[in-house]
Amino acid sequence: MPTPPPTDPNAAEGATKSTGPDAPRRSLAVRVRRFIERPRVFALLLIAPALIFFFVWNIIPVLTLIGVSFYNYSMVTGMPPRYIGLGNYEDIVYSFRLWESFGRTLSWVVVTVGIETVLGIAIGILFWGSVRLPGRRLALTLLFTPMLMTPLAAGIFFRLMYEPSIGIINYVTRWAGLGTFSFLSDRSLAFAAVVFVDVWMWTPFMVLITLAALGSVPKAELEAAEVDRLPWWRRLVTVVLPHAKFILMIGILLRTIESFKTMDLVFNMTGGGPGTTTELVALTLWRRAFEAFNLGWSSALAFILLLMAIAFTSIFLFVLNLRRRQQEREASA
């Protein structure tokens, strides 16, 4: 009589588990785990908190802003919001004072970003070429200090320095025999005085961007240029600039966007005065929203500024990528 095959206790136990009452729950857990372990699903789960944060704090407020811009919504009158279609946008288009503010803001952006870029590149090249200079680290630390200050603190600091009676700047001008200047109340000096403060604050940022850009230049090419005894200006044009210009352009783009949004520094120093000499478009927006409480008009202006910033950034990046593609095609050819 044949003997039955030996039974495996582990197999019997596994069969019991697979057919037990917890089997559906375990199979569901396995399916969920396999679903999560998919590359795309796992990547989406990793960025889900950031997407939720972006949706709650960016998308929803922007959609609300767009909706309010089509209403005559003033918190002063106490009347309920009234739908007026494109009425707020038409008012903005035909507002002469607002166009003056736009022109002043454009001048502000061009002057401040231009000066900060030139000074930042010059100072960055100076520190880049003086690696063995004694006290270089201390000088860089002190140089970056203005960038760490808030615009509110910097505005108060320089408003006291510009003060005609007790300010240190007027003390120096009187000592030099130049007299006393009302920097923040004189129409011919107020704009330049505020520009100087912004340049003082943000030139270190362009220095930092320049040092990062110069650090991306291959040392082999610099050594080859030194062996060929190229003049310093030819090294900058032919070796340094092709490698450093992308990072420099990103820095200029960031500063342009931030300069376009400047409000707190001007508000703290001059309040937009004397008259409207230093009133930028962001300050105009703030006044209509939080002084006149005209939320419909200010929402329309805010949405226009958002579109302008998006358009400028898109054009800037498109031109920058277009040049990079042309260079890659020339290099491959």
Note the main attributes of this structure.
single chain, 333 residues, mainly alpha, MetI-like fold, 2 domains, two-stranded antiparallel sheet
In short:
With 333 residues, the chain is mainly α.
Largest sheet: 2 strands, antiparallel
Mean of pLDDT: 86
Q: What's the end-to-end separation, in Å? A: 85 Å
Text of the CATH class of the largest domain: Mainly Alpha
Order of helices and strands: HHHEEHHHHHHHHHHHH
Q: How many strands appear in the DSSP assignment?
A: 2
User: Which consecutive residue ranges, at least 5 long each, have pLDDT under 50?
Assistant: 7-18
What percent of residues are in strands? under 5%
Give the C-alpha Rg. 31 Å
| Count of all domains | 2
Written overview of the protein:
This protein has 2 domains: 25-63, no CATH class; 87-332, MetI-like fold (Orthogonal Bundle), CATH 1.10.3720.10. A two-stranded antiparallel sheet has the order 1-2. The protein has helices spanning 9-18, 23-36, 39-68, 87-93, 96-128, 136-143, 145-148, 151-162, 168-175, 190-215, 219-227, 232-260, 264-269, 281-290, 295-332, and strands at residues 71-72, 82-83. By secondary structure, it is mostly helical.
Strand-helix topology:
Layout: H1 9-18, H2 23-36, H3 39-68, E1 71-72, E2 82-83, H4 87-93, H5 96-128, H6 136-143, H7 145-148, H8 151-162, H9 168-175, H10 190-215, H11 219-227, H12 232-260, H13 264-269, H14 281-290, H15 295-332
Helix pairs in contact: 3-15, 4-15, 5-10, 5-12, 10-12, 12-15, 14-15
